[in-house]
Specification:
This protein is an alpha/beta fold and about 725 residues long. Helices cover about 40% and strands about 20% of the residues. Bound molecules: flavin mononucleotide.
Length: about 725
């Protein structure tokens, strides 16, 4: 819901608000320029001093004003003509006629009313309201993404567009909130929606004596020039007329003969609020704030642009479901938990089959679960599992949200997973348990589909149909992922002597058959995944990338698994052979930005992405690599390249452990335990830990690291949640 409010309307509004935002940004620079241009007001000068200097030059002076832009002006009538002059506050000398620049006037009008009078002013007010809504919903979305309001300052991870949108939005939100709230207040004033300032001017009687020289009047001597707003002079022809002196405190009426204060009308609370609001909106008298507000406004077009990219990506990633009835009128709701989108394909087949059987079906992502979904009589959940039995992207918030919502529909849960993972369909199991615990009746027991098996899916459909009292034929045709050909350019084989063959394979894009020009690889970073389809199979296998596209090569480390279809295929490949592959981004497994140390830990083929991170470290950030193999003589992957990286300072230290070396066996976790004080110091300095390799190794590393970080008052779940402990484990 929040995302829907923030998404498309946000993009449209951000683009429409660009005029207001850009003009606001331009105007925000003005207070700083004015401050630089306006002559400084000496602290000791009083209003009386300056008034005397001006009156000496212009006997017909009527008003002296210290304007919001910092300039001091005097208005006077001379020879029947009215003039306004800018005054040097230090000497009272004239600096020439005062005029607001035409450009500033134009930009101000564009900002306030799109040059269209009241209608434009109303549009600007609506824009301010929209900006307020976008700022609040944006901060709420970011908090949700980062793990709660307390986590709002954590680094934003994800694709470049996600990072820009999140980081910039977070910086700009405070300024935009302030600008929109104060803008709304000012608009309310313009349209007479605020209460009128109360208080009437008290009746005063002037002494009627002969006017004293203005420089001698006690009240004017007591007020510093820098506190002045406006001083109105009495009409020389009227002996009963008085001075009016306006400051932030209020308005004083001053006797022209005695210099005494005849009356003081203090500024009302509303006037003070209006003053404060104007200052907070314009940055006048607060130029640093002005610049901050300007930067926040300048971010609006960028936020609109990156928002558009994110929205288009999300739209493209979510398959279209034909005939999706609104949730409120559906008798069957299908909720989908997916990361790679294949589960949406199954959901589409189920949706179409149920619709054809006469049901009113609504399909949505599990993250979007709402009370309307749970009010439907029937809820079908199709959920994939990722990581170590964790929720996929589109279901991350499902369980937390479910717990807050009412409703007990009849349910059926179908898990999608892969039996080769130790936690087969664990997330779907957790969902089924949560629904069971809240008392939802089961339509059919929870089932699990291994590796997108169309047969298992069809069987579940038959069971579901039987429970619903009609036939349900689910004929799912897997849509193969869009692949590209890659040509094997080189291979190095390790570990055969110790019974654990690992190949480093380097691929290139095929060259143009006509011109022979080298082909272009798609964009990817070390740590992303490449999906490879072994011949005759529709199920891709994923490998972590050890290079980035900038290296001009796509590199993976592949351990030969007994009976493994894809690893056997890859190990048998000869240079020049072609494979079908596609890239899957894995932004969660990347070094965080900055210069904080990196601790890279891996074993066996897990060194692939870690070597890629080291290779990319041209800036010489401190990087410490812990890696375990079997034998230094047989499977020391990247041995020579790592030695070179050490010499070039891309790698700071390298600790290796070999489990089958004749001079004593050791594992990577032993090296971690032995280095505990050094690692603790690195973590204290803010180091990020990246672990890649097999599950057993990762678990042993976790056990070895817990006592390292505990004395710092930290634990691995905390480091994990802040992105300082990330794993790529298989
Ligand atoms: C990086 C990765 C991790 C995975 N982890 C698990 C897991 O822990 N348990 C499991 O049963 N399946 C796991 N799988 C398999 C997916 O759940 C399965 O391929 C599913 O069909 C993907 O659905 P989706 O394309 O809709 O995201 C994993 C797949 C990948 C690529």
């Amino acid at each position: 819901m929040l995302r829907r409010l923030h998404g498309l309307p946000g993009i449209v509004l951000a683009l429409a608000l660009t005029v207001t935002a850009v003009t606001g940004a331009v105007l925000s620079v003005q207070p700083a320029l004015d401050r630089a241009a306006a002559p400084a007001i000496p602290a000791a000068t009083s209003v009386a001093d300056l008034a005397a200097q001006v009156a000496a030059r212009h006997p017909g002076v009527s008003v002296i004003r210290l304007r919001a832009d910092g300039s001091l002006t005097a208005a006077f009538d001379e020879d029947g003509a009215r003039g306004v002059e800018q005054i040097d506050p230090a000497t009272g000398a004239g600096l020439g006629p005062y005029a607001v620049s035409e450009t500033t006037r134009f930009i101000t009008n564009l900002h306030r009313s799109f040059l269209s009078g009241d209608a434009g002013r109303a549009a600007a007010a609506i824009g301010a309201l929209a900006m307020l809504g976008l700022s609040v919903s944006g901060v709420a979305l970011l908090a949700r993404r980062l793990g709660g309001a307390g986590a709002l300052l954590r680094p934003v991870r994800g694709t470049p567009a996600q990072r820009w949108h999140g980081e910039l939005g977070r910086l700009a939100a405070l300024g935009l909130l302030l600008s929109s709230l104060t803008g709304l207040w000012m608009s309310a004033g313009t349209f007479g929606l605020l209460p009128e300032a109360q208080g009437t001017s008290p009746a005063v009687t002037a002494s009627g004596g002969a006017p004293a020289p203005v420089g001698t009047l006690a009240t004017l001597k007591a007020v510093k020039l820098q506190d002045l707003r406006e001083l109105s002079f009495p009409d020389p022809a009227d002996p009963a007329d008085v001075f009016t002196l306006a400051t932030a405190e209020g308005e004083r009426v001053v006797d022209a003969a005695t210099g005494a204060t005849l009356a003081l009308k203090p500024a009302t609370a509303l006037e003070r609020v209006n003053d404060l609001v104007r200052m907070l909106h314009t940055g006048r008298r607060a130029w640093v704030l002005g610049l901050f507000l300007g930067l926040a406004s300048a971010a609006v077009p960028v936020l609109g642009g990156t928002g558009l990219v994110l929205w288009l990506r999300r739209r493209a990633a979510r398959p279209r479901i034909a005939a999706n009835v609104p949730a409120r009128s559906a008798d069957t709701v299908i909720l989908v938990g997916s990361e790679g989108n294949s589960t949406w394909g199954f959901a589409g087949t189920l949706h179409a089959a149920l619709t054809a059987a006469g049901h009113k079906v609504h399909t949505a992502a599990m993250n979007d679960v709402s009370s309307a979904h749970l009010a439907a009589p029937r809820l079908l959940v199709l959920a994939a599992t990722y990581g170590e039995g964790a929720a996929p992207q589109s279901a991350r918030h499902f369980l937390a949200r479910l717990a807050r919502l009412p409703g007990r529909p009849a349910v059926a849960v179908l898990g999608f997973g892969d039996r080769s993972f130790p936690h087969f369909c664990r997330f779907a199991r957790a969902v089924a348990d949560a629904l069971d615990a809240r008392g939802c009746p089961q339509i059919v027991p929870m089932k699990r589909v291994d590796r997108r098996s169309a047969q298992e899916f069809a069987q579940w459909g038959r069971d579901l149909g039987a429970a619903l009292g009609h036939d349900l034929v689910l004929a799912y045709m897997a849509e193969p992922p869009k692949t590209m050909p890659l040509v094997l350019a080189g291979r190095e084989l390790y570990g055969e002597a110790v019974g654990a063959p690992v190949a480093i394979l380097r691929f290139q894009a095929p060259s143009d058959p006509r011109t022979g020009a080298p082909g272009r690889l798609p964009a990817f970073e070390a740590g992303d995944l490449v999906g490879i389809l072994p011949p005759g199979d529709v199920m891709p296998r994923f490998y972590s990338l050890g290079s980035s596209a900038r290296d001009g090569i796509l590199e993976i480390c592949v351990r030969l698994r007994e009976g493994g279809l894809c690893s056997s295929f890859l190990h048998a490949l000869q240079p020049g052979a072609t494979i079908d592959a596609f890239i899957r981004e894995n932004p969660a497994f990347r070094p965080a930005k900055g210069r904080a140390p990196l601790i890279l830990i891996g074993a066996g083929a897990g060194i692939g992405p870690l070597a890629g991170f080291v290779r990319a470290n041209a800036a010489g950030r401190p990087v410490h690599l812990y890696w375990g193999g079997r034998s230094a003589a047989s499977d020391f992957l990247y041995e020579h390249e790592l030695a070179q990286h050490l010499a070039e300072r891309r790698l700071t230290t390298l600790r290796t452990a070999f489990s089958r070396d004749p001079d004593g066996s050791a594992y990577v976790q032993d090296r971690i335990a032995a280095d505990a004080p050094r690692l603790r110091e690195l973590v204290r300095q803010g180091a990020q830990i990246l672990v890649c390799g097999g599950r057993d190794m990762a678990e042993a590393v976790t056990r070895a690291l817990e006592p390292v970080v505990r004395p710092l008052g930290l634990d691995l779940p905390t480091l994990k949640s802040s992105g300082r402990y990330v794993e790529d484990v298989y």
